[in-house]
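Quick one: structure tokens for this chain, please?
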Amino acid sequence: MTAARFLVVLDADSTLIRNEVIELLADEAGRRAEVQAATDAAMRGEVDFAASLRSRVAALEGVPVAAFARVRARIEPTPGVRELTAAVRERGGVVGVVSGGFHEILDHIAPGLGVDRWRANRLTVTDGALAGTVDGEIVDAAVKASSLREWAAELGVARHATIAIGDGANDLMMMADAGLGLAFNAKPAVRQAAGLVVGPVDLREVIPLLP
């Protein structure tokens, strides 16, 4: 694999895209309010992310897999995302996404947004419907951080040439491991801990910070 000049790793929900996918899926189960409250608490760092995700995914039990197409149709890319990923690629960088969300959505939207590689959770499906469980290891804060380190090593990118962009408490480890951690559309605790805070919800604001 050809070495990259630098690596940019983004969170997905509320960073790469404007939505929280699990809330869109919860709409399909008629349980958005409770799932949204649990998501907000997890993003503020008030509860353990993995435990919170398991409880929120349990609320999706019975949602048919046909719902994925409806959810994908509702996804709104964050303003400036395509301009940012194009700028990264033009400068010899690589764009990664590591998400506490789901491959079932990200696999369809990431390529069109200029993302080179991505990692997320998978949902267990039984008889054409969600079983209410996560299939395999949960992508939590530690997995996000290790993904950034793993990808940087694969690409021959030094730590100082990595940028992590996120909004929630589960992004903090990844942001701390990166050469530059950017709080974007972020919760107060994340803004406080970040190396730099991006104010406008427009990913074009990141372009001047690229190596």
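Residues 141-155 form the longest helix (15 residues).
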